[in-house]
């Protein structure tokens, strides 16, 4: 299942990992509260943008490309976060948290270059090997934010999950609780020293098809394996508001709706073409 552990920030740069852990805890305290995040990550991003006075549009649409997870770019002062809703929801959640780190670096003037140039998260970066320092940090940040140490420890105790006896089904239980992909959960267990290096490799060597089979047989984490809806940010919301408040003429409303439908069809046709 790849070298995600050896290539992680935790192994390669332990001091920087500790810094990212501190950042994730501070971010959670200010913007997340004491709760398991799961799909609330999208609302958290919007709340963060509101508090930081950033213009952000979150778009979720199936790009028909399983290698593409998410990308973020700036256009005329607005940040656009695009997440591939054709992926399993757990991957969308991780992708959004990953991109949140890039947005955070941009907003806090830690590093604006990545977002300014346009960040892109693909399956290799998310599940195997990050190609840039900021992507390496973003992967660590996403895992720490979505599965913080204190909550992971609490759930392990509640469900009686024991160290070296941890099985694939135990990982599935944590996947269901935190809505994270398999590898991300195993990595967090290793980072928190709940499992040894040998157990980490054992779990990571389990084939993806075997994991999927156990999900189907047990039903654990099944709800997070589906894709989700398409969401065009505020475009349709603004359209409905203008219509309800009679701010548009009949001809303008008709032309605007036709234009939005054209955008939707263009997205779909590009997705089918693999773009």
Which second-level CATH architecture of the largest domain applies? Orthogonal Bundle
Estimated radius of gyration: 20 Å
Question: Which stretches are low in confidence, meaning pLDDT under 50 for 5 or more residues running?
Answer: 270-275
Number of strands: 5
Question: Strands across the major sheet, in which order?
Answer: 4-2-3-1-5
| Helix/sheet category | alpha+beta
How many domains?
3
CATH class of the largest domain: Mainly Alpha
| Average pLDDT over all residues | 87
Tell the overall outline. globular
SSE series: HHHEEEHHEHHHHHHHEHH
Q: Report the biggest beta sheet as strand number plus sense, adding barrel if it closes.
A: 5 strands, mixed
> How helix-rich are the residues, as a percent range?
55-70%
CATH fold group of the largest domain: Arc Repressor Mutant, subunit A
Span between termini: 26 Å
Query: How much of the sequence is in beta strands?
Result: 5-15%
Helical segment count: 14
List descriptors:
Arc Repressor Mutant, subunit A; disordered C terminus; alpha+beta; 275 residues
Task: Describe the secondary-structure layout.
Blueprint: H1 9-12, H2 14-31, H3 41-51, E1 55-61, E2 68-75, E3 78-84, H4 89-107, H5 113-117, E4 119-122, H6 123-127, H7 133-146, H8 149-158, H9 168-178, H10 182-191, H11 197-204, H12 208-218, E5 231-232, H13 235-244, H14 250-272
Parallel strand pairs: 1-3
Antiparallel strand pairs: 1-5, 2-3, 2-4
Helix pairs in contact: 2-7, 4-7, 10-11, 13-14
């Amino acid at each position: 299942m790849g070298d995600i552990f050896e290539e992680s920030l935790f192994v390669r740069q332990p001091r920087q990992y500790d810094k990212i852990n501190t950042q994730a805890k501070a971010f959670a305290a200010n913007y997340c509260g004491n709760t398991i995040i799961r799909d609330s990550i999208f609302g958290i991003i919007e709340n963060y943008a509101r508090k930081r006075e950033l213009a952000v549009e979150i778009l979720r649409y199936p790009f028909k490309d399983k290698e593409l997870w998410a990308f973020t770019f700036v256009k005329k002062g607005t940040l656009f976060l695009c997440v591939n809703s054709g992926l399993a929801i757990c991957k969308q959640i991780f992708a959004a948290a990953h991109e949140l780190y890039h947005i955070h670096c941009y907003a806090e003037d830690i590093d604006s270059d990545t977002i300014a140039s346009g960040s892109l998260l693909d399956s290799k970066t998310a599940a195997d090997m990050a190609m840039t320092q900021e992507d390496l940090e973003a992967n660590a940040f996403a895992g720490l934010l979505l599965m913080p140490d204190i909550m992971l420890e609490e759930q392990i105790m509640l469900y009686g999950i024991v160290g070296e006896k941890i099985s694939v089904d135990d990982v599935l239980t944590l996947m269901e609780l935190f809505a994270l992909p398999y590898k991300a959960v195993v990595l967090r267990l290793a980072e928190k020293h709940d499992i040894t290096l040998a157990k980490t490799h054992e779990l990571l060597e389990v084939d993806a098809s075997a994991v999927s089979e156990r999900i189907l047989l047990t039903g654990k984490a099944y709800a997070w394996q589906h894709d989700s809806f398409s969401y065009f940010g505020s475009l349709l919301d603004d359209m409905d508001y203008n219509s309800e408040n009679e701010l548009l003429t009949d001809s303008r409303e008709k032309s605007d709706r036709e234009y939005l439908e054209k955008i939707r069809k263009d997205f779909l046709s590009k997705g089918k073409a693999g773009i």
